[in-house]
Amino acid sequence: xxxxxxxxxxxxxxxxxxxxxxxxxxxxxxxxxxxxxxxxxxxxxxxxxxxxxxxxxxxxxxxxxxxxxxxxxxxxxxxxxxxxxxxxxxxxxxxxxxxxxxxxxxxxxxxxxxxxxxxxxxxxxxxxxxxxxxxxxxxxxxxxxxxxxxxxxxxxxxxxxxxxxxxxxxxxxxxxxxxxxxxxxxxxxxxxxxxxxxxxxxxxxxxxxxxxxxxxxxxxxxxxxxxxxxxxxxxxxxxxxxxxxxxxxxxxxxxxxxxxxxxxxxxxxxxxxxxxxxxxxxxxxxxxxxxxxxxxxxxxxxxxxxxxxxxxxxxxxxxxxxxxxxxxxxxxxxxxxxxxxxxxxxxxxxxxxxxxxxxxxxxxxxxxxxxxxxxxxxxxxxxxxxxxxxxxxxxxxxxxxxxxxxxxxxxxxxxxxxxxxxxxxxxxxxxxxxxxxxxxxxxxxxxxxxxxxxxxxxxxxxxxxxxxxxxxxxxxxxxxxxxxxxxxxxxxxxxxxxxxxxxxxxxxxxxxxxxxxxxxxxxxxxxxxxxxxxxxxxxxxxxxxxxxxxxxxxxxxxxxxxxxxxxxxxxxxxxxxxxxxxxxxxxxxxxxxxxxxxxxxxxxxxxxxxxxxxxxxxxxxxxxxxxxxxxxxxxxxxxxxxxxxxxxxxxxxxxxxxxxxxxxxxxxxxxxxxxxxxx
Length: 679
Hints:
Blueprint: E1 2-3, E2 6-7, E3 14-15, H1 25-33, E4 36-37, H2 46-57, H3 62-69, E5 76-78, E6 84-86, H4 89-94, E7 102-108, H5 118-132, E8 137-141, H6 146-149, E9 158-159, E10 162-165, H7 167-171, H8 177-201, H9 204-211, H10 220-228, H11 242-249, E11 262-264, E12 274-276, E13 281-282, E14 295-296, E15 299-301, E16 303-305, H12 310-317, H13 321-329, E17 332-335, E18 341-343, H14 350-357, E19 364-368, E20 373-376, H15 391-401, E21 406-410, H16 418-430, E22 436-441, H17 443-449, H18 470-488, E23 493-499, H19 506-518, E24 523-527, H20 529-532, H21 538-550, H22 566-578, E25 582-585, H23 587-598, E26 629-638, E27 643-648, E28 667-669, E29 674-676
Parallel strand pairs: 7-21, 7-22, 8-20, 8-21, 11-16, 22-23, 23-24, 25-26
Antiparallel strand pairs: 1-2, 3-4, 5-6, 6-19, 9-10, 10-19, 12-15, 13-14, 17-18, 19-20, 26-27, 28-29
Helix pairs in contact: 5-21, 8-14, 9-11, 13-14, 17-18, 18-19
């Protein structure tokens, strides 16, 4: 049988329902495009499931997937057979008068190092809504970083029979957005060190003449700097006075204030602190050659993982191309010796960064195992960044879904960081209001929070996690209850998704449901989408639909006022969301607060970087810790993206690899080109 140019072959995994079962044109279209899933037991590995679907059932051609999603042919840029970029401006302009769909955020409790299936639940819920309940649905998820893909946690395509396919294309490179961010970030890093080198070795006049070519007008990015300095932008380069030339040409970096670092999308602890400029010597400005020896032009800096770059945050929070250009140009990379903020546009880089990022601004369209559409865009971690997919992907999906449709967007583990940032930063920037928050919980993680033995990647689970232990589950529910209470502070309905594992018992899952309802959840539902696909999340889909219908959007609110002092906003999050007794700031953080507030950045929202494994800064403190304080060691500014970034505890902005990284299992079948061992 052939449909939309794609052959469906008989297999033990899937079949098409007989046409005699179809009673309406809508159901007919839905059921033929979404073959009914008959999962195998035991469930194969994620990559085996993905490859079976691709080879035995086939994917819906990307043009047909886009058409079913409501996209016009000229709004889709195919990227091979299984992926496509989606045009933003033309699509959103066409749909600007269309009502939005129902907006759902999916997050989770504080996880074990193995993950609790938040991405899997996001995909499974979207499959249930679309393929099973016949609603128009979209999942909006982040692009995975190569760091955890080859490290411990693995990819982010979901898993089992609730995943994005082909999963190897999803997890490896995708459409190159992360590579574009790496290139843009490192161009700006190179511009910083290059500018300091030339300023340290040239006079004001020589520097100005090399920056402003004779006979050529100021380009737009330089005119922006002229306006910032109070110089008439209509002047030609030859018309500036000597004082204006010096003021324009010399950024005069205070090196100790530079927070911009180089990035790469790999876990590599050895790059956390590096010295740059070794072997590069200069003749210091104002010295005589031959009388004063040349000096090395070195400084101490470091690397971050690409997904922690401010450019990734800008991508996630930009509303359109003009907004992307504005945000990239306004990124503050350091301060002058006079205390003035220096931006990427001051360095002349904003336009070039936008050119590198223009294609990355377009979300990528893919499909689930049940052929429901997925928009993949941006990939910031929740522990060291904002932890959410992009605003533009959500806006696009909401318009395409329409008034009766549903958009499930993910916010990273745990809800104390990913969900809090979704509400206080992402929703504040987008103006969108969610109708429901889905919090993913597992028996395994709640047993850990209830006092169970440590859970470590690569080590067998203790017997407590394989056998029924209701007291551990009940004790651990305190963690879930706190997350439910936190979500309700924002005025949204909460549905708990109990992500079922094969060793969970009915009594354990009932204990979670009872605790959730007692804490004020709208509903708590067992979901087995990993093993059963959308059918396993059907009850969850029904609960979410009812929660959206019952939600009153006028109840939605933010946790803090943007005009509150920086210190107060950090304390509000720490006390209200984490349950801390208070916050301690290092001397450096105190200095940075004064600098940011004097520079006019005090009214920005707060994006706290801390461990995802606990409400506190101690990853070993499980459940709901008491009697602790949050320690802020430094605060970075992400002025372009639009937030301040306190770094707490021992959190690192570039992870390290474990003793046995995941890459040991990854290989390729050289006869077929098929990827092997990727989870």
